[in-house]
Every structure is written in C-alpha cells, then in structure tokens.
Amino acid sequence: MSSRMLHRDRRRGGPILSVEDLRTAFFTDKETIRAVDGASFEVHKGETVGIVGESGSGKSVTARSIMGLIESPGEVLDGRIRFRDRGTLERFADSFSGKTVDVAGIDDDEHAATAGNDDFVFVEEWSGNDPSGGYVDVTRASPSALRKLRGNGIAMIFQDPLSSLNPVYTVGNQIKEALRLHQGLRGRAATEEAVNLLEAVSIPDAKRRITEYPHQFSGGMRQRAVIAMALACEPEVLICDEPTTALDVTIQAQILELLNGIQEERGLAIVFITHDMGVMAEVADRLNVMYAGEIVETAPIEELFANPKHPYTQGLLESIPGRHPDDDRLRTIEGDVPTPNEPATDCRFAPRCPEAFEECEAVHPVSVPVNEGTNDHTAACLLYPEDESREAAVETHRRRGSNSEVSIDE
Amino acid sequence: MSETVQRDEESVVDDALVEVTNLKTYYGEGGLLSDNPVKAVDDVSFGIRRGETLGLVGESGCGKTTLGRTLVQLERATAGSVSFDGTDVTELSGDDLKNWRRNAQMVFQDPESSLNDRMTVGEIVREPLDVHDWNSSRERRQRVRELLETVGLREEHYYRYPHQFSGGQRQRVGIARALALEPEFVVLDEPVSALDVSVQAKILNLLEDLQDEFGLTYLFIAHDLSVVRHICDRVAVMYLGNVMEVGDGEELFDDPANPYTHSLLSAIPTPDPTSQRDRITLRGTPPSPRDPPTGCPFSTRCPAKIRPEAHADIDDDLWERIEVLREILRERNRADRSLTERARELLGMDTRFSDIDEILQEVFQTPAGTDAGTGTEGTTESGDPLAGVPSTVSEPIERAAEHVRSGEEGRAREVLREEFGSECDTEMPAHHEVSESDRTSLCHRHKFEHDEPSAFFERTVFDG
C-alpha cells in the first residue's frame, strides 16, 4: 500500500539525452516509410519524458533509433542523438580515442563538419588531459561502440517481457550475464549481486527465484526480472517501450510504483512510451505527442492535459472513455493514421483535422511555441503561435519550414 | 437512443435472458494422471437481463474468457446450469445445440488471429449462414453485403482479404460475422483491447448502435475498466474463478463494496496528471486456480483481510511482513522441484528450499522502505531476525520455522494459518446483498460484526 508520488521538479541539470531532427526510414520495394520524420526532444537527468501516439506513429522506432537498434531495411538518415554523460564520455574517449574529436570552442552547428566520417565522441571541454564535457553521438557510433553504450549508458525494456528473456537459461544466469558483460562480475559475486537486484525489484524469495526459468515467473514478475537486468548495467537513461501494456492493472500499478522508486533512488532519466494516456498522466513529467512520424505537440504533463493545443492531441484526449461521462457516444477522430511515405509538404493531420483550413494542405507546420508567453509548450500546427494573425503564423511556418528543408536521397 | 430500453433499471431479474446458476468449468479433470483440475470458473451465479450490457472484468487468468466461452457452449460446463430463455443449454447436444447456437455468438479479442487469412471477407461473414443453411445462396450474398454496410464497411470489401484491412476494420468483420444469424446474445471477448484509443472509440460506438438497432444483449468481457464503465449497464467483477461483486455499473464504480473491486478501481491510472488519489497497490499475483485458497479467493492479497482477535493490535507494517512470509511459503509449495532437488533432499543435502533463516532475515530485517514502521524495527543488526518483534508474533513464527527446518513446510503453513489466519483463510464468504439494486459482494466484512470494507479503507488508506 502506498500513495502516489507527485512528479514535479525532478529535472536536474542539463539534458542528458537530446534527440534533434531525427529521421529514420524503412526502405521497402514498394515505398520508403518515414517512420520517424524530424523528431526532436530532450531528456534531463531524473525526469520522465513520455512519448505517446497511436500504433504506427513512430514511437517505438524513435526508441530503437536511440538504442541503435535499427536494422536493414531501416536506416537512421539524419539527425543527432546526443548522449551527455561524463562517465560514458571518459570511457569512450579512452577506448575509442581514434574516433574522438576535439570540438572545444567550436560552434554547435559546426560539430559535424569538424568531425571525420567515423568520429562519434565529441569533447567540448577538457580538464587537464581528461575530457570533462561533451557527448557521444549515437547516430554516428560504430556497432562495437553501440554495444558498449547499450546497457551501460542507455538501457531499454520492452513490452513483452517473455520475448526479452531467453527461455532456456535461468533468470539468474541472464542477470549474471549482464553483470559479467557490463560490470565484470563473476562467480559468487555475480550471484550475490543478482540476488540483490531481484530484491531491489521486489521479488520475494530472490535466492530461490534466480535458479528458476522465465516460464516459472508470472508476467509481472518477468517484467521485474527484465528491469533487474536493465539495472544490472547501471544505466543513466532507461527507455521503457510500453512496459506495462501486456500486464493487468494491479500488476501495472506495481511496476509503475517500482519504476518510480528506482528513478527516485538512482536519479535515472526515463523515456516512457505508451499509448495509454492514463499511465502517461501518472508517470511522465513532460509529454511528446507523436503523429505519423512527427512530434506534433510537447508540453509539461499538467499543461498538456489541461490545455491541449494541437487538434490531434485534443482529439486523442477526447476519445478516452470517461472524459465526458454525460455524453452517450464517445468522441472520435475521423479517418485513419496515414503511413508517412512522402516527405511532408503539408500537415499530415489535415485530412482528419476538424480545424483544417486551406493553407494546411500547402504548408508543412513546424514546432513553434503555442503563444508568446511560453517556451516549454510547442505545437506543430499552423494555428500557432495563437497570438499572431493567421497569415503571420502561416508565414512563420512557411519560412521556418523551407529553412530546414532536408532532401533525402533514395 | 439507448437509455430508454437498455438503461431501464425497472426491469426485474425475471426478465433475465441468460441465467447462470452455480456454474463450474474445470480443465484437466478425469484421466489417470490428473492432478488437481484448473478451476477456471468456480461456482458462479448471475443473470443477464434482456437488452442490457453486462460487463465482466478481472485480471488475466481470472476465468472471464472461460466463463464467456462456457455461456456460448464453446466449453463444456463441469457443473451448474446456463439457462437461456428458459432452456438449460448445458444439456443441449447435437442438432438442438446447433440450432441454439444461432442465438448466441461471440466476437473474439484478437482480430489478427480470429479471421482466416485465406478466405475473403465476404466468405468469412457468410460462413455462419452457410453452416446453418440459411436461405438461398443469392440471399446469403445479399445478406453479407447488408451486414458489411451495417458495421461500417463497404460492399466492395466483399472480395478483399483480411490482411488488406486495419485492426479496427478487421474487428468490424468479426462483428459482422457474429451478427450474421441475427443472434439475441453476443459475447464480446475484449473486442477493443487490441485497438488504439481513437479506433476503440469508433468500435464502441458501433457496438452501441448495433445494440439499439437489433435489441442485442451483450456480455462484454474486458480488463479496461474505463471502457466497461462507458458501455455497460451492469458489471460483474471476477477473481480467481469467482464473481466477487456484481451489480449496477455506475453504482459499483462510484461506491465499490468488495475489497477487490476497491483495489482494482484504485489501480487504474486516471488520465489526469493533477489527480492525487491514494492508491491501494496489491501485493503479489493471484494464486494458481489449480490450488485456490481454502477460504476467500482473495484472502492471499486482500488489503482489508480480517485479523484474528489475538493480533488485532500489531502494527500494519509487521502484519504486512507476516503476510509476505506466508506468501513465500505458499509460493514454495507451488514451485516445482526438479529431480536433482528431490534427490538432494532425500540425501539430506542442502537444497534451495531449506534456507528459512535467510527468508526470515529478508522478510523481517529489510528496512521498511518509505513507510517508517512504528517501534518494531530499526533496532537491530543482531543475528536473530525476529529480535524486535513482539513475542506473541515471534513465538509462532519460530515454531513454523522449526517445521520448515525439519522439512515439513505443510505443517509450517498450518501453524501460521492457525495463529494469524481468520475466517478469511478458512471459510468461503457468502454473497451479501450490498445495495437496494440487488448488488451483491463476496466478502466476510459485510457481516454485521465487522467493519464494512469501505469503512475499513476510509480508516486505513485514505486518512489524512
């Protein structure tokens, strides 16, 4: 029994992870699917950033891009994923010294031009001979570097715990494998640490449990074991891709509570992906709404629920049963989510949008603050900034859109 | 609109279309090697009124799908009866059963696997008509076209294949198939769980429209309680094969009577980030339906469990720890032992099952986490895990531990049950009527000598 924690001001320091203009596409014989098409967001230490959207909106692909898990026919085409963690930076500058580039004093936009093709460790500050500030660009990292980064820096837990566990090894073995690879622990020490980790994720009788196989665990217990494995690597950022979708509500409550406790304790940054607005309201500090590969609205969670600005966000919130208890019928959004297979030249939501006007089909909206007073609530919609006249707003979008136009060679 | 017919609460129980009495469905019974059967549905009684939507909610594995399947005779009932319009359908067989099946249809959860990918949509929807030899084939085709339109698809979809459709459209095909024979009763088994919110809203609206148009009676199985609240007139809450509470939907959601309903409702995340609701988080997972608790099915996890007189005053944190210890011992009983372990045990060697002292250490010595217990712990780093625990508590635990050490875990569980158990552990509670609208709840706390569950929660969880 415990009460709900309120999540405010958990942000500490600058962003530990920043995704900028990420574009990930899948090339098929028929078409190119732009699963993620220009997504940008930041994650700070100790906070939970949510990504919400319907199936096919690109949330999972975003997560996989951050983990460097995109495989052929998919490809990260463009954008930067910068992971700023001093420990990781030091380790990487050390073990990949040939791929480290000194960008101290160089303007942010010039970093990529300064670096060689294979370089992916960017050092911005030095203290003596040691790097003290900088980042690792995940999109440029080599496969061997990615392997080091996954787990140690950034860990991920997936929707279906059974498919992330190997059925023929005991749970203990799998946790110990993670401990061996990432912390170099072996034998008795590894076993002890594995027991501690299972206890940390509230699995009772942990000593016996580590000798059991995944099929002997219940669904919630499996997800706990997967979380324990993720923690074995002591990550700084934890990406949770629908971690509770396959679980019952009572178990979901347990897992959410567990994640919250772990975050408080270790100052983890969490990227939380779900399509369940209720869960989102519970866990997230900031929320990004994705639609057809783009982030259409970003705001602190309370603000987003209280004042959704993008018509899609409004529609999404309206269609949750129980928002309007007096209405007999549920409100719906007409039409279906399109597959983004062309570069966007218009608003992808326009065909379904109740507020669409003529320019929506001609101008691609970019993310802008929803009004002059705020800078942490942005929406990609021609209606905004709302304190500008419509013509002026459309012009803003047109201008900023053509500046950042990127062509993709196929 | 729906309220005139369906929401009419005047209708009395004798207008029940489906009447379920003491229904049991067990799996894996009979046969030489059978152990305990899985008691998927264990003595369930309720009625579904004509034209209403009864919601059936519960966690996975609680038996709600089995119950739904038994109602439409996709599973054979082990005992009890399902009376449909006065006929006991569990007795039907052969042609009678086939004829009756026209009246009761089912829509399945997963639109990916419930449609045959090698048949066109038209063939899928027509299949029930073919099976029951409905009219001429020209009329059948015509009927399918109508049905496709009814569920919001287009006539030309007749010749397409399921893979050409999205999840929402496939679910519409499943609904059209269920409606083909004009049934009176439809079991909807999680019809929207696999769909996105915005698509889900459309399907729910469609289901409501169809109910109005054809006067259907629904059994709506779901685990998403906000969906159930929206669409259902009455709701039944299932746990471990039993119906814990059944009654008017609005009433049940606003003022739940059963401790399980309380916990379930409080576990749903509210789509409101400013909400500061207190939550009851249940410990552990539901017990195995192969080996349900002897008393109340919910007794192993119940936050409102009645305590025995003798221990009424021990503090909540310690009580929680005792429950955890009992849970661990029960869990061990369930865990299968491998051959090597059995051999080691026979040889008197140390096995993973014998470290009771470590368990005690783990259960009683780990810091209390966020809720600082009062007085009982924090005192010790000494060898005895039970130091600091009042002797009325430590003495029976010590006795139980002794039994575990000598390999008699069964006796240990008994000792703990006798000492810390109450009627919740030993006696199956009765279905008490808890409101004027015939809502019933399965819990000992409704007896007059105890606090009502809601009063109990008011006092312990929500104070301050």
Question: Could you explain how this protein is built, in words?
Answer:
The complex is a heterodimer of chains A (410) and B (464). Chain A is of the alpha/beta class. In chain A, 33% of the residues lie in helices and 24% in strands. Chain A has 14 helices and 15 strands. Chain A has helices spanning 59-67, 86-95, 111-114, 143-152, 161-164, 171-183, 187-200, 206-209, 219-232, 249-266, 277-283, 301-306, 311-318, 390-403; strands at residues 2-3, 12-27, 32-45, 48-52, 74-83, 100-102, 121-127, 130-137, 154-157, 237-241, 269-274, 286-291, 294-300, 368-369, 378-379. Chain A has an 8-stranded mixed β-sheet with strand order 9-10-11-4-12-13-15-14, with helices on both faces. In chain A, strands 3-2-5-8-7-6 form a 6-stranded mixed β-sheet. In chain A, helix 3 (111-114) links the parallel strand 6 and strand 7. The N and C termini of chain A lie far apart (55 Å). Chain B has 2 domains: 3-256, Rossmann fold (3-Layer(aba) Sandwich); 309-421, no CATH class. Chain B has an 8-stranded mixed β-sheet with strand order 6-7-8-3-9-10-13-12, sandwiched between helices. Chain B has a 4-stranded antiparallel β-sheet with strand order 2-1-4-5, with helices on one face. Chains A and B meet through strand 1, helix 8, helix 9, helix 10 and helix 11 of A and helix 7, helix 8, helix 10, strand 11 and helix 11 of B.
Q: What order do the helices and strands come in, and which of them pair?
A:
The complex is a heterodimer of chains A (410) and B (464).
Chain A: E1 2-3, E2 12-27, E3 32-45, E4 48-52, H1 59-67, E5 74-83, H2 86-95, E6 100-102, H3 111-114, E7 121-127, E8 130-137, H4 143-152, E9 154-157, H5 161-164, H6 171-183, H7 187-200, H8 206-209, H9 219-232, E10 237-241, H10 249-266, E11 269-274, H11 277-283, E12 286-291, E13 294-300, H12 301-306, H13 311-318, E14 368-369, E15 378-379, H14 390-403
Parallel strand pairs in A: 4-11, 4-12, 6-7, 9-10, 10-11
Antiparallel strand pairs in A: 2-3, 2-5, 5-8, 7-8, 12-13, 13-15, 14-15
Helix pairs in contact in A: 6-7, 6-9, 7-9
Chain B: H1 2-5, E1 16-27, E2 38-49, E3 53-57, H2 64-71, E4 79-84, E5 87-88, H3 94-101, E6 104-107, H4 121-131, H5 137-150, H6 167-179, E7 185-189, H7 197-214, E8 217-222, H8 225-231, E9 234-239, E10 242-248, H9 249-254, H10 259-267, E11 278-279, H11 316-334, H12 339-346, H13 356-365, H14 391-405, H15 409-420, H16 423-426, E12 431-433, E13 440-442, H17 453-460
Parallel strand pairs in B: 3-8, 3-9, 6-7, 7-8
Antiparallel strand pairs in B: 1-2, 1-4, 4-5, 9-10, 10-13, 12-13
Helix pairs in contact in B: 4-5, 4-6, 5-6, 11-13, 11-15, 14-15
